[in-house]
Each structure stands twice: as structure tokens, then as C-alpha cells.
Amino acid sequence: MTRSLTLFCAFLLLITSCSTSKKTGAPISYDPPGSTNTKTKPIDLQKKGTFTLDGISVNNEYDGARMNGFEKLSDSLYRINIHPENAPINMSPWYSFKIRSATPREIYLHMKYRDGKHRYYPDWSNDGVHWEPLDSGRYTVHDNDSTILKLKLDDKYRWVSAQELWTFKDNEKWVGQVAGQSFVTQEAIGESREGKELNALKIALNPKQPLLVVISRQHPPEVTGYLAMMAFVEELVSSNDLAKQFREKFSVIVLPMLNPDGVDNGHWRHNTGGVDLNRDWKYYNQPEIDQFQKYMHQVVKTNKLDVVLGLDFHSTHEDLLYTFNNETFPDEKGVVKAWIKRLREEFPTERITEEDGGAQSPVSKNWFLNEFKAEAVTYEVGDDTPREFVRAKGEASARILMELLLEKYAGHH
Ligand SMILES: [Zn+2]
Predict the structure, then answer these.
(1) What's the Cα-to-Cα distance from 118 to each of 83, 308, 387, rounded to whole Å?
(2) Quick one: which of 106, 308, 384, 398 could link to 235 by a disulfide (CB 3.0–4.6 Å)?
(3) ω before 260 within 30° of 0 (cis)?
(4) What is the pLDDT at residue 143?
(5) How far is the CA of 384 from the centre of ligand 1 (A)?
(6) CA of 132 to the centre of ligand 1 (A)
């Protein structure tokens, strides 16, 4: 290509960079424009501190907090401002703050979002560790997006949060616990943009054994998917006979928190590069995805491993499994269709919804297929799915999958 033609193409790319094109991958229906352009974009940092009005203090100085301003509207009505890290952005407006009043009183709090609409039912905590849904009598949400919380305050801080807090530090602790088992090792495979370790768990990693890969928390607010991932992994490392048999035949790599910066900064969706990481599995513009994909290629190549399944845990409005259609990955070649059938038998009164599709968009599920010819699933958990069921289904998912993989591959390796 001549120099002038190159320049002309560069110019064309520049002026079309806001729209999704063939250059950046297929669009996803619920995405805002430009999501699959994963070049680094600027983000706004929230101002950290204690904001005090009439003796009421609101604070965001902790990991996972998101609160961008506090205003007075009338005698007992105040406003909390919540902004995304940048926009346009997927509608998952995370918020988290702690609040107290020097004198005991009840106040109304209007939740005001920039570039977003209220989504998460508020959780309430006395210590930032134990959570319960805010009493329904203290919460009103109207069609016109005026969400009001009625809070009873005294001089002790109370936490209000879109979901339970599971921060980078909490993840480190969990990873450490799982890695306490003799057949599990922990490895930092790289660093986030802000320098947090991306810690992977290697379970029974053995060059002769086919590999299951589990990832989670590309999207910071998606705590229920993360809870399901923990239940799933804990079942894989348990001491029962099924898990022991499984680990004699299969290896597992787990990367439980791919976006630790977004989690600790209280982001709605993106990493510190201002990008939706689960749209970066084609061009690897962001360090979190790029380091993980390099690590995976190196491990798989060095050990000549077969990747049998990739699982990516997320959250959305309902429990849902994104799978491949039969044309993209023949049903009988994999285990996912049988897995869903057995899950439905295990939970006959629950709706186990499947949405199958192709492998065009630059998400992790499609990357597993395109890079490793592996079957893959995006495992979505509802925002408000009862936590006991999230765990029960996470454990059952692991159990059924171990059974199916053993049935399918026993004797082959
Ligand atoms: Zn997600």
C-alpha cells in the first residue's frame, strides 16, 4: 500500500471509529455504540472523601465505593449523585457508600444517575461485610426513574450498596483459601492496568489432562455471577469421590477476577482503560485480556492441552446461559446441551433459560471456540436471584459437569 493510501485509510478509520464496523467485530444488541472499539478511553475518577450536610455524612473512601456527590433538596430530602466511569455505557449503574447522622433521624435519599437508570435493589449493612436487602417499605422506584430510599440514621455508619461488596482483597483471600489444597497452585499471570495482580488458580494441572477454564468478574457489578463461580470452583476442589475422580482426569484454570481495578473503583462496567473487557477478546487492546490470552496460549501450547470447555460467569436481569447453536458447535460434540438438560431435571421448578447463537462477537465465549476449538458458555445469574439458590445451582452445575466430562472422556485420556 502506498503511503498516501495508508494515510487515507487511517483517516477513514478515524472518522468511523465511533461506529461498529467489521474492523472491530459484530455488535451486541444491548450494547451502546462503540463498545467493540476497545482502544483505551479516558475515565472520570470519583472524588474520594466525606461529604457532610446538616450533620449527615456520606463517605466513599473504601474499595468498591461509588458516590459522586451529595446535595440537599429540602428539609428531609437529600440527593446522592452517581456517575459512570465514562459514557456511553451498559445500564449497570453501580453505587456504594456509607452514611450516618450526628443526631438520630430519618431522611429521604434521591438516587440520581448520570448516563444511567436505576437498576440494583439496594443492599444494607451495619459493617460492610454482612448484607441484607433494604426493607421494601424503605424503597420506592417509579417509572420516571426517581428512586427514593427512606433511611433511619444515627451516628454509626451504615453501608448502602448495589450488591454485596466482593473486592480485590476479598478475592485474594478466597484465592488463598482455595490454593491451600495440595493439588491447587496460585499464580500471578500478570497485572491490571493499576498494578493489581491477576491471580489464577491451577487445579490438578497436568499435561496429560484435558482442561476446563473458568473466568469471572470482567464486569465489576456482576457479583451474583462471581458468587456462582465461587460455589462452582469450591465443588471442583472438594474432597468427595466425584471431585477426586474428576481431578485425576481433568485440569482446571480459574481466573476469578479479571477486572480488579473496576471492582475496587466501583465502576459500572469498564476497566481503568475505560473499556468493556468482554468486548476485547479479538484485538486484546487491554492488558487484563491480553495477558490472560497470552498466558492461556502458552499453557495450552507448552503442555499440549485439550481445552474441553470455557465458562465465563456474569450477571444480568435473570438466570440465563448463552451457548452455541448446533451449526456453530455441534451439540453431540460437546457436553453443554446434556448439562442444561440435567440442570433442569435437578431444579424442575426453576427456569433454566438457554440462548444459543453464533460466535461472531468479540466476547470470551467465542474466543474459547475460535482459539481452542472449545465449547463455551456465558453463565449469567440474575441480580436478585436468592443467594442460596445461586450457590446450590453453582454447586450442581459443577457436579453435573464433572459427571458428564468423565462420561464423555473416560478412557480417552
Ligand atoms: Zn457481564
Answers:
(1) 12, 39, 21
(2) 398
(3) no
(4) 64
(5) 15
(6) 23
User: How far apart (Å, rounded) are the C-alpha atoms in residues 307 and 20?
Assistant: 31
Give the Å distance between the CA of 217 and the centre of ligand 1: 7
Contact between residue 269 and residue 92 where contact means Cβ atoms under 8 Å apart: yes
Compute the distance from residue 28 Cα to the ligand 1 centre, in Å.
12
Going from the Cα of 112 to the center of ligand 1, the distance in angstroms, rounded, reads 23
**Residues in the chain with pLDDT values less than 70:** 1-25, 143-144, 411-413
How many Å lie between the centroid of ligand 1 and the Cα of residue 287?
18
Q: Over the stretch 283-304, which tens digit does the pLDDT of each residue have?
A: 999 999 999 999 999 999 998 9
Task: Kindly list the protein residues that place their beta carbon closer than 5 angstroms to ligand 1, a single-atom ion.
Answer: 219, 222, 314
| Residue of 376, 264, 269, 393 lying closest to 324 (CA atoms) | 376
Domains of the chain: 50-161 (2.60.40.3120), 168-409 (3.40.630.10)
- Compute the distance from residue 383 Cα to the ligand 1 centre, in Å: 11
Question: pLDDT tens digits for 117-153?
Answer: 999 999 999 999 999 999 999 999 876 677 999 999 9
pLDDT at residue 28, as a whole number: 82
